[in-house]
Design brief:
Blueprint (H helix, E strand, L loop, with lengths): L4 E3 L6 H9 L1 H4 L9 H12 L5 E7 L2 E9 L6 E8 L8 H15 L5 E7 L3 H9 L3 E12 L2 E11 L3
Helix pairs in contact: 1-3
Pfam families: Acetyltransf_3 (PF13302)
Organism: Streptosporangium carneum
Protein name: N-acetyltransferase domain-containing protein
C-alpha cells in the first residue's frame, strides 16, 4: 500500500486546493467555486471551525495530493467519510491508504464506532477505494444526489470499529 501522511491544511496549500477543484470532476463537489486563494482558504478554514468534523491533507513524498475527512459526527459515534485525490495521484492506492489511515484515526482518537460513506453508483473508482479500505456495501439510495439537474443513485458503505 502507498505510504501517506495525514496533516492539517495550511495557507501554503492554497494552490493545490485551487488546482484540485479546477478539475472538471471536482468542480461540482463544492457548494460554490473554489477558484481563488480566498475561496481555497475559506474551504480549508471551514474544517477548522467544526466540532463535528476533521479534515486532513493527504501527503505523498512531501506533496499534498488529496483530502480525507470525517464529518457530521453524531451522538451515536457515527461519522461521514469523504475523500478526493488530484488526478496524477489516482490509481496508485493513495486514496485507499488515506481512507484506511483516517478510519484508524477516527476509531482510535475520536472514539467513533461507525463510519459511513457514499458514492454515485457510476463511480467505480470510488467504490473500489471504499471496499479496499474495508467499507462494506450496505445498499443503494435512489436518486439521492442532484448535480446540474440530474439525479444520481448513491451506494452506501460502512465500516465499524469492530470490523
Amino acid at each position: 500500500m502507498t505510504e501517506v501522511e495525514l496533516r492539517g491544511w495550511g495557507p501554503g496549500d492554497v494552490e493545490v486546493v485551487i488546482d484540485a477543484f479546477g478539475a472538471p470532476d471536482m468542480a461540482e463537489q463544492a457548494a460554490r467555486p473554489i477558484d481563488t486563494p480566498r475561496a481555497a482558504l475559506e474551504w480549508m478554514g471551514m474544517w477548522g471551525f467544526r466540532d463535528d468534523a476533521q479534515a486532513f491533507a493527504v501527503v505523498v513524498g512531501g506533496q499534498v495530493v488529496g483530502n480525507v475527512a470525517v464529518s457530521d459526527i453524531d451522538s451515536h459515534d457515527t461519522g461521514w467519510v469523504s475523500y478526493w485525490t488530484v488526478s496524477h495521484a489516482r490509481g496508485r492506492g493513495v486514496a485507499v491508504a488515506a481512507v484506511t489511515k483516517l478510519a484508524d484515526w477516527a476509531f482510535r482518537e475520536r472514539g467513533l464506532f461507525r463510519l459511513e460513506l457514499g458514492h454515485r453508483t457510476s463511480n467505480r473508482a470510488s467504490c473500489a477505494v471504499a471496499t479496499r479500505a474495508g467499507f462494506l456495501t450496505e445498499g443503494v439510495e435512489r436518486a439521492k444526489l442532484s448535480h446540474g439537474g440530474v439525479r444520481y443513485d448513491v451506494e452506501r458503505h460502512a465500516r465499524l470499529a469492530t470490523d
